[in-house]
Design brief:
It is built from 16 helices and 15 strands. It is α/β, with parallel strands linked by helices and about 450 residues long. A hairpin with a 4-residue loop joins strand 9 and strand 10 (about 265).
Length: about 450
């Protein structure tokens, strides 16, 4: 649906401006309207025109110009929608899993699903519609939302909606469910607030679960489980966080985020003239330690994109989201079962490691969240977080039917479905145990 039809009301915006409301107040109002529409991706020059007009309060004297601007924005959106539809038509091997849900359910029939989710993804609308005025138009990107929650200007405010939280909770009752994120594990847990999930933070370098006990390389911690393949780097990363925090303390706009096994230095709010100084501080800090590496950003973005300007310092270990997924499957004792079908949903380039693992084993299914044409190892796609929520709800609905393999086989190390026919049928449970015996 186009912008003028359901995302913005001309009279409402004009009234707000006539009442003297600030650009920030208008931005907040618009952000709420666009919060559920990850497909709202506009051409950069059209966004710049809108921003300039708002800044100059041109609508106060010529409110009729709003209609022309909205029309122009609609045309830009229509072109992007057409491009995306063309990509979908060309790449039929990545169809919408909602459009092909009957096909998906046939593939999943009799399987025990395990669900893995990325947390947040792309920048929010505010970052595009009201960009850093020090950045040129050509240096900006269009944006949307990620998998479960948006990336916002302040990384500590990437909250998921209550509706999405309930959807994830319902999925976790029926299938073992994990969130694998580049963020610090404790931070993701604080955002999601669901104790029944498995969490893998720092790109899988810090894994915990709900009272999970296994026979492989796991340690009991507070009644749960813990696995940290880079545990020896913990004290070093704490030291790095302190050094970087002290190093950028006098640079306006620079912030340092402690993700436990990944320290992120954000410079999106800095003066561009200070960027080289921030990078030098990171490089100098890196030179003091052995076994660390630095990467820039989490996505394949232009270097000048202010919304995701970040340096990340991480341990130099052979570990990624794909290996974290494999580890969790082993910990759950699901990795050797032919009736297990892992699903991974994500929108970040780092999620491709998980997609590739599932593609290689041939028994899993990757689902890319994107409204932009891009190469991927995923099998299906979803357009935005709203569709992710819809798909999760459909998984719960489908899971109550006989096709859900968890009804016949509940064997899983440390996890039991809350809703399962096999739980109340000793004969089914005994048969499941026999089927999984070596």
């Amino acid at each position: 649906m186009l912008l003028s039809q359901d995302l913005i009301q001309e009279a409402e915006v004009t009234t707000m401006l006539r009442r003297g409301q600030s650009e920030q107040e208008l931005a907040a109002r618009l952000e709420r309207k666009f919060a559920d529409r990850a497909s709202f991706e506009l051409a950069e020059d059209e966004l710049e025109a809108l921003r300039v007009q708002i800044n100059s309060q041109a609508f106060l004297t010529a409110p009729s110009r709003l209609h022309a601007d909205v029309t122009a924005l609609n045309k830009a959106q229509a072109l992007k929608d057409a491009e995306f539809q063309e990509w979908k038509a060309r790449h039929r091997k990545h169809p919408s899993v909602l459009d092909k849900f009957v096909e998906f359910s046939q593939w999943a029939h009799g399987k025990r699903l395990a669900v893995f989710l990325d947390y947040d993804g792309k920048p929010c609308f505010y970052c595009d519609a009201f960009p850093n005025p020090k950045q040129s138009v050509g240096s900006r990107i269009s944006s949307g939302l990620g998998t479960l929650a948006p990336i916002v200007k302040n990384p500590d405010e990437a909250f998921m909606s209550e509706q999405m939280r309930l959807a994830v909770r319902d999925v976790a009752k029926m299938y073992p469910t994990a969130i694998i994120s580049g963020r610090g594990r404790e931070k993701v847990e604080s955002f999601v607030q669901l104790q029944e999930l498995y969490y893998a933070g720092s790109h899988g370098l810090d894994i915990v679960g709900p009272k999970l006990l296994t026979r492989i390389c796991l340690q009991e911690e507070n009644g749960g489980m813990s696995f940290q393949p880079a545990a020896k780097f913990g004290p070093i990363m704490t030291e790095v966080f302190g050094q970087l925090s002290e190093g950028v303390a006098n640079i306006p706009g620079a912030t340092v985020e402690d993700n436990k096994f990944c320290v992120s230095v954000h410079f999106r709010n800095c003066d561009p003239a200070d960027h080289p100084q921030v990078e030098k501080i990171v490089q100098d800090t890196l030179a003091r330690h052995v076994g660390l590496k630095m990467s820039r950003g989490r996505k394949l973005l232009p270097a000048a994109c202010w919304a995701l300007q970040v340096f990340e310092v991480k341990p130099m270990v052979d570990w990624d989201k794909g290996k974290a997924l494999q580890h969790l499957l082993e910990a759950l004792e699901l990795h050797k079962s032919a009736d297990v079908m892992p699903l991974y949903i994500g929108d970040d380039r780092t999620d491709e490691d998980a997609f590739k693992v599932l593609k290689a084993v041939g028994t899993g299914c990757g689902i890319l969240v994107s409204t932009k044409p891009k190469p991927t190892a995923a099998y299906y796609h979803l357009s935005d977080p709203a569709e992710v929520g819809t798909f999760l709800s459909k998984l719960v609905e489908w899971g109550q039917d006989e096709g859900n393999g968890w009804h016949k086989n509940v064997h899983c190390n440390g996890w039991t479905p809350i809703y399962s026919r096999a739980r109340s049928d000793p004969q089914l449970s005994s048969q499941a145990a026999a089927d999984d015996s070596p």
